[in-house]
């Protein structure tokens, strides 16, 4: 499935670069990527000695490839939405069909961008206080399609701390690995970094790291 998902993400990115315009993407694309990354993390934790195994390195590479591609898709679409917002503000040609391809969260961002630009212009150029909110709403109404009112995502629950952290000095280069906190660490000789204590203990036992023990 990784190959299929990664290929879909890369093809989406390639199409976006090819057209140079905001294009349709599957509404569940981001969610599918998030879910699969969580599955890969579970697979990683299920390996025996993932720090030393080739399988662990491959899982980290897959997570990195998917994460990087999703981030590039987001960055490119955001730049394209910014271009649409400037067209709207400056009264240039505005392609409503292209605007309809925004995802609900992107539509909300688009409206906020319009508000911010208008508010800044009114304040700096005209010296007037600006009631933020009106321009963004008008811009959204200009798209000939009913816009769903989408509630913002609920704040994510804090990630439980699975272990205390330790400050360590990295004594030799090493492969990237995933800590018990879910973060991917890419470390090299000479780094001083805070790691989950469980991971720090393993690295110190293997003489890869030295625990500085500031909290001891």
Question: How would you sum up this structure in a few lines?
Answer:
The chain is built from 7 helices and 5 strands, in the order ααααααββββαβ. By secondary structure, the protein is mainly alpha-helical.
Task: Explain this structure.
It is a single chain. The chain is mainly alpha-helical. The protein has helices at 2-19, 29-45, 54-89, 96-99, 104-124, 134-141, 197-205, and strands at 165-170, 177-178, 184-185, 192-196, 209-211. Strand 2 and strand 3 (184-185) form a beta hairpin. Helix 1 packs parallel to helix 3 (54-89). The chain starts with a helix and ends in a 5-residue tail after the last strand.
Helices and strands in order, then pairings?
Blueprint: H1 2-19, H2 29-45, H3 54-89, H4 96-99, H5 104-124, H6 134-141, E1 165-170, E2 177-178, E3 184-185, E4 192-196, H7 197-205, E5 209-211
Protein name: DNA replication complex GINS family protein
State the main characteristics.
single chain, 216 residues, mainly alpha, Methane Monooxygenase Hydroxylase, Chain G, domain 1, three-stranded antiparallel β-sheet, 52% helix, elongated
Q: In the CATH classification, which architecture of the largest domain applies?
A: Up-down Bundle
Structurally, the number of domains stands at 2
State the share of residues found in helices, binned by percent.
40-55%
Give the overall pLDDT as a whole number.
79
Q: What would you report as the Rg, rounded to the nearest angstrom?
A: 23 Å
Unreliable runs = 144-153, 155-163
**Given this structure, which CATH class of the largest domain is correct?**
Mainly Alpha
Organism: Methanoculleus bourgensis
Protein name: DNA replication complex GINS family protein
